[in-house]
Amino acid sequence: ERTIQTLEDMLCAYAIVFGKGWVNHLPLVEFSYNNNYHATIKVEPFKALYGQKCHSLVCWTEVGEAQILGPELIQETTKKIVQIKQRMQVAHDRQKSYADLKCKPMKFQVGDKEMLKVSPWKGVIRFGKTGEVKP
After folding, report:
1. Residue 119 domain-assigned?
2. Which of 44, 78, 121, 131 has its CA 20 to 30 A from that of 86?
């Protein structure tokens, strides 16, 4: 519930600022949400997932270079995020095609017997409440 409310508030703010063009800035909303501190998990979602903070490409300017401000900054950031997502999708598709080549399709019929690898459980596994005795 809290996540939905937060995202709704962020989208409303973007709709107010950018009007009808707010849809174009959805990747920036996602980027912003994933790279801000969340009190419930006590860390940014990006850091929780990858173990390190996200380093924004927009902030990598050299000393003396003119910095982009306002809507230009948002447009530049959005372009970079979209470009990164496209490159990630290309890499994902390439890895999937390699995995699909190695994957052997298996067909099973009713009544077929197959070997099942089962790892032993470690420790004691109890089902139900402990200390409860049933007749």
Report:
1. no
2. 44
The owner of tokens 């996602």 is 30
Helical residues (DSSP H) of 41-134, grouped into ranges: 45-50, 71-102
The answer to whether the pTM exceeds 0.85 is no
User: How far is Cα 107 from Cα 119, in angstroms, rounded to an integer?
Assistant: 24
Q: Does residue 29 form part of some domain?
A: yes
In angstroms, the Cα distances linking 61 to 37, 65, 66, 101, 122 are: 24, 7, 8, 43, 53
* pLDDT range class, residue 64, cuts 50, 70, 90: low
Please tell me the total count of domains within the chain: 1
Could you tell me if residue 37 is inside a domain?
Answer: yes
